[in-house]
Amino acid sequence: MARHPGIFPTFFLSGFECSNFVWKDKVRRNLVAETAHDRHVAEDYRILNSLGIAVAREGIPWPLVDRGGQYDFSMLDPYIEAMNASKVSPIWDLCHYGYPDDLDPFDDAFVARFAAYCRAAAEYVLPKLRGPHFFTPINEITFFSFCAGEWAWAAPYRCSKEDRLRLRLSLCRAAIAGVKAIREVDPEARMVHIDPLVRVVAPRDRPDQVEAARHETEVDTFLAWDIISGREHPELGGSPEILDIVGANNYAFGQMEYREHGPHAALPPGDDRIAPLCDMLRTVWERYRRPMIIGETSGFGHGRAEWLRDVMGEALAAVRLGMDLQGICLFPAVDMPDWHTGEWLHNGICDLVEADGDLRRVPDAGYVDELRRWQKELNRVTSLDEDPYSDPVELQDVVDAAHRLNMQPDKDWR
Predict the structure, then answer these.
(1) Is residue 377 part of a domain?
(2) What InterPro entries does its record include (predicted)?
């Protein structure tokens, strides 16, 4: 019997890039196809099984399964078969920047249609997979709002702060409605609301921008979670139970210098304005007091192992201070292209190598070795047994390791 059972069957999670937005060129992208995850799904899940990872963020492509409110979810069957074969549980991502062509996210019909789709998706997948069941209704509401509401990178191609705020409010309404619809199917379903963990500072020579940077760090970063939790706009029906699990994404470019127009500039490694990840997680914890995961994190190229080492140090410092950190999602499991250039980012557990018209999966040895080191340090499995749920994660092992290693917040991390 676990003294401190975790929510998930393993502490380490992963996931697959599944964006399906209509991009700047007005053409819909399908990152699942671009990374060949659709053709290699069985292999991809076997890789996770061999790495001792029993949870994966996986997308349901709303614009591809919903035709005017008529649904065809059969394209999910190979994914469900692969999950069952490899004993991996999904966190179903129901809207990853893409929505059906006949919808306007600023219209009330968007919310009603999304709720109906969420209910239908839950009805389809729940009988085919053992529980517990996990969902992310709308991925990265805050970033989605910037990307499509202010920077015009993706549909609906708006380019003002006012439209960004309106889009975020609409997406929050839809997410809340989606949670309620899913729980009509499964009242015990768990929700993981994913958004970036962000810190913005003013340029050193622009004291006039200090307040704008502070507002983005302390208000903008949290507003979607605030609405979903009922802290803001309670008339929309949010509550702590609807927020449920907070998924805070962490990348190096999440700490930035403020720019008035367009995306901010990432702080370079070694910048003295970089804050410890532990301190940023503490802000989330003290604000919501909900279970947390690091919803996405990865280094790049040869820095992947070092990145994981630094993230684990910060994560265990957070655990040592009493934060309820339930897991860390090493994202993505297989490499993904830069949305703008198409170049491979080399941020996955596996690189993708073009060979004979296909994309071969090649694990990054240093990254895998570092994962193995931490699995052993935390007394975690390194490969999955027949039933990952038969022995729940003993989070007390993670707590004990955090105290034994005496991890401290450290701003000098990369």
Answers:
(1) yes
(2) GH
pLDDT at 414: 55
Of 116, 172, 107, nearest in space to 145 by CA: 172
> Domain for residue 414, yes or no?
no
**What angle separates helix 108-125 from helix 161-185, to the nearest 10 degrees?**
40
Q: How many domains does the chain have?
A: 1
What is the mean predicted confidence (pLDDT) over 269-274?
93
Give the residue numbers spanning the domain of 155.
Answer: 12-405
Q: Is 13 helix (H, G, I), strand (E, B) or coil?
A: strand
Asked if 258 and 216 touch (Cβ cutoff 8 Å), the reply is yes
Sign of the C-alpha dihedral computed for residues 319, 277, 275 and 197 taken in this order:
negative
Flag whether 78 is in a domain. Answer: yes
| 4 belongs to a structural domain | no
What confidence tier does 360 reach under pLDDT thresholds 50, 70, 90? Answer: very high
**Helices and strands (DSSP H and E) totals, the chain:** 14, 15
Rounded Cα distance between 301 and 254, Å, is 18
For the chain, percent of residues with pLDDT exceeding 90: 93
> What's the pTM?
0.97
